[in-house]
Every structure is written in structure tokens, then in C-alpha cells.
Write a structure and sequence with these properties.
The chain is α/β, with parallel strands linked by helices. The chain is about 40% helix and about 15% strand. The strands form four sheets. The chain has a five-stranded parallel β-sheet with strand order 3-2-4-5-6, sandwiched between helices. A four-stranded mixed β-sheet has the order 1-12-13-14, covered by helices on one side. Strands 8-7-9-10 form a four-stranded parallel β-sheet, with helices on one face. Helix 6 (about 155-170) packs across helix 16 (about 400-420). It is globular, with a radius of gyration of 22 Å. It starts with 8 loop residues before the first strand and ends in a 6-residue tail after the last strand.
Amino acid sequence: MPSLPFRPVFRPVARFAVAMLAAALVFGCAQSPTRPTGPSTPATSAEREAVREAQRLAQVLAGQNPSERRESESRIERLIAQLDDATLQREAARLAAEDPLYVYMGRALMRRNLPLPHAFARAGWNFDDRPPADRDGYRPPLRLAVLLPMSGSLSGAARPVRDGFLAGYYGESRRRPEVKFYDTAGSTTGALAAYDRAVGDGNDFVVGPLGRDEVNALFARGDLKVPTLALNRGTQAPPPGQASFSLSPEDEGLAAADYLLHKGARNVLVIAGDDDTQRRAVGSLRERLAARGGNVVATVDDGTADLAAALAGKSADAVFLATKGNVARAVVPRLAAVGLAGRPVVATSQILTGTGKAADDRVLDGVAFPSESWLTRGVRGLATAEATGARLPSARGPGGRLFAFGFDAWLLTAYLDSLGRNADGAVEGATGVLRLDGFGNVQRTPAWSTFVNGDPAPLADAAR
């Protein structure tokens, strides 16, 4: 778990009660790398020019079409990536919260695990109908709607999310909102209809929907009547006054790139499968490396036997695995043959899929991967993952990650107002440390784990 010396971490007082959760499940079914900053030094001419160009681009974003805006935003991120920590902090501090460049600089600070100089502007946010916050920032809504696909193809993923949400809800001893669940049936039409029913029923906050297409359809409406915490990352930023939270593969690719850059690795061999999740993780890793002076030297299919041929004439100093654990067991032993033994190897969380037998998984010892705090270290407010899984099937195995995600979704409903108001606000959740950027996206700093004697274990000093 990253240390947080420069900001308070809101820790809700909660206790996991199995009996109450069991009752809640009946109710639910009934309802349809921190890096040290060196001494302050004057910006170089190249850095000053990068800031000026980023400022110019940010000023014209509002008048651009979607394609132009995406290109400009990508350019802004590349320019900001050229700044060292001290310059980034200094330049961000000079910007007002309303400056269009501040949201980009602030997000870069958060990704580097550096403090914000001041909070983001919050256009469209209004929680004035809620009672005042407790001292730790706890300020839940009055009536809460949860939109999940309890039927349809996504119902299997929705159950552990729902159960994790209810674990947090019934574990909280303070004031709680009325909660009603709405079935989206896993379709965009169902999600929009469920949202409209939730608004019509008088709910003052909405959690969900869960599917990516559902989130895109809802956010495409633009001006939503009730504040929403979507449970996926759409293809566009949330509208003003809305937020999104996800366990996206893009975020894992970004985290892996930052981990490798911190290790001094800039030339990375990527070994990946070809499903959508793996492609998205690789894409974000590639973009982050390129923006920070790194490079993907080669991308190899995870079924390739001859790594030497793929690396012919190229030099790598690290490996990124976007593949499942049962496949990684065959890949990792072949790295020594191409001179990569002892080099940093980072994987996505998919490496846990197809693993679980220590005798077989010892070949993965030393591979680092992002993980959920609850699964490796525990989190305040929940029993251990092992104890919870023994009582609830939905919290076992791959479902444990979604269970932790649902628990954090509850925390965010109660602490979102504080996260938006405070530059140093963070919630220590089951999936990691949660903060809110200027675009309404919840930024997650995951815990890091590795394999030791074939078993997943917390990775020492990963936060730094």
C-alpha cells in the first residue's frame, strides 16, 4: 500500500457482518510510484516551450470537434510528460483551478503520486441536499439507486459487485441511504430505462451502469438529471457533475509503464494475447512509455516459441506480460534464453487467471502485477478475503476482484463529495487508494504483488 504522508486518508469505520449481508442479498435480489522530488531548478527552454504549447492547446479544446480534441489532448499529455517532477509541480501551482490546462497537469501529478497544489474546479457538482459531512468526509446520499445487469450476459459479473457493495453498505454503522437496485439487463436500452426509473423514483444519486456500452450510452445524453458514479470507463470523459470508476485494463497498462520507468527500464518487450482486455492494456502501456521517453521494442504473441527471432537486432531491458497465468508459466522460463533473466517482468492482473497451485506457479516467482489491497493485505471494514470467500461464493476466486470493486463503489458514494472538495483527499479502499481527477474519473493506485514460492505476496517497496 502506498504511503500517504501528504494527505489524509478517509477510513470509514465499518465492520463486516455476515448475517446482515445475507439479509442484504435477499433485499438486493428482490429489487429488479512516488518518486523523490529533487531541488527546485529553473525550467529549461524546452520545458518552458512545452508548457506554453500545452497551454495554447488547452485554450482551444472547447472549440474543437471530437477527433481534433482527442489529438490535442494526446499532444498535451506528451508535452506534460516531458516535465520532471519539480517543474510539473511548480507549473501546476501557477494555474488556477479553472484554467483548462490544470486538469491535465493535475492528472499527471496524481499518476506520479505527487500532491496537488489545490483542488480541481467542480462544475456541475451539487450535493447540497445531503446532511453535512462527518469529520472524516463521510457524506452519503439520501436515496441511492444501483444499476446493475442482474439478468443477461453480464449477470455473472454483477453478482459479486452487488455483494461487495452490500458488504460495505451493511457494514457501515452511521447514517445510510435508502437503496434500491435496478436491473439493466446488460443492454444500452435497459440501462437508459433503468436510469430513468431511478430518477422518477426520486433517488438523488445513481451508481452504475456496469457495461462499457451502457456507460457510453448514458454519458452521451450529456446533461444528466441525477449525479451518477458509472462503474466503467466510457470512451469520453464523464459529463460535468458525473463520475466514473473502473478496473480498466488501460489503467493497468499505465501502472505497469510507470512501474517499469521507475525501475529505469525504457525498452520493453511485450508478450501478449489477443483478447480485447489484453490489447487495451498493451495500448496504454505503449502510449505511456512513448510519452515518458520509453519504447516497446517488440510485441510478441504469447504463443510464440522463438523469442530470439522476435528480438533479432533489438535490445530489451524489461518484459510486460498481458496474458493469463497458465500461458505465462510457459513464457517466463524462455526469457533466460534471450538474455532477460533477472530483468524486471511486469504483468497485468490477468496473470492470476489459471494459477493457484504453488508447485506449478513457482516459475512465476518475481513477476510483479497490480493487485487489490483487500486480496493481499486486507482492508479496514472487511474480513479477510479468505474468510469472506468461505462464507460468500461470489467473493471467491476471480469474483474477489469484483467483490472488492463493489465495496469501493459504496465507499465512493459516501466520500465523493470530500474527494471533489479536497486537493489531498483519498479513500483507502479494497482495490487500492482512490482519488478523483478533474475529469470526474476515479484514479486508483493499486497495491502491487509478486509470486514468492509460487504464491502471490505483497511486493515490498512497490509504492516508491
